[in-house]
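Input C-alpha cells:
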C-alpha cells in the first residue's frame, strides 16, 4: 500500500500572469492532499496580479499572509498557512524568484 505524503507545499512563481496562476490555483485546490500549503511568489508584477490573486485566495482561505521578500529573512508558523503570498520587489527571473523563497525559509 502506498503511504500518503506528510506535509505538502506547492510553490508557484507568478509574473504578470494572474489568469494562468488562478487557473493553476483552481486545479490545486481540487487535490486531495492534506495538509496542503500553497505559496505564490509574485515576481514584481506590474499588472493586477497581486490584487487578483489575493482576492481569489481571500474567498477560499480568509485572511492571507503577504510577505515582502526584501524585508523578511525567516518565517516560522506554528501551523503552516493554507495559502501564503510572497512579493518580490523586482522580477528576479525564474531561478531568482524560486531562490528567494528558499532563502526566506518558511518553516512550521
Amino acid at each position: 500500500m502506498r503511504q500518503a505524503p506528510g506535509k505538502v507545499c506547492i510553490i508557484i512563481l507568478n509574473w504578470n500572469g494572474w489568469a494562468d496562476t488562478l487557473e493553476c490555483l483552481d486545479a490545486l485546490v481540487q487535490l486531495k492532499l492534506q495538509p496542503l500549503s500553497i505559496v505564490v511568489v509574485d515576481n514584481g508584477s506590474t499588472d493586477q496580479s497581486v490584487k487578483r490573486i489575493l482576492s481569489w485566495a481571500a474567498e477560499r482561505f480568509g485572511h492571507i499572509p503577504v510577505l515582502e521578500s526584501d524585508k523578511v529573512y525567516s518565517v516560522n508558523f506554528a501551523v503552516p498557512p493554507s495559502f501564503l503570498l510572497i512579493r518580490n520587489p523586482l522580477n528576479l527571473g525564474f531561478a531568482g524568484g524560486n531562490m528567494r523563497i528558499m532563502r526566506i525559509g518558511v518553516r512550521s
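Strands lie at 8-14, 36-43, 66-68, 75-76, 83-88, 106-107. The two ends are 28 Å apart (CA to CA).
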